Amino acid sequence: MVGLPARGKTFVARKVARYLTWLGHHTRLFNAGDYRRAMLGSMHNHEFFDPNNAEGKMARLAVAQAALDDLFAWLRKDGEVGIYDATNTTRARRDLVIARCIEENVQPLFLEIICDEDSVIEANIRGTKLFSPDYANVAPEEAVRDFHARISHYQSTYEPIGPDDTSYIKYIDKGRQLVINRAGGDIAQSIVRLLMNLRGVRKSVWLTRHGESVYNGLGLLGGDPELSPKGLAFAKRLSRFVKIQGETMRDAVVWTSTLKRTVQTVNELGVEVVTFRELDEINAGLCEAKSYSEIEREMPDEFAARKADKYRYRYPRGESYQDLIRRLQPVVLAFEREARPLLVVGHQAVLRAFYAYLAATPPEQCPHLSIPLHTVIELKPKIYDMAERRIPLD
Ligand code: F6P
Question: Could you tell me the CATH number of the domain that includes residue 287?
Answer without folding.
Answer: 3.40.50.1240
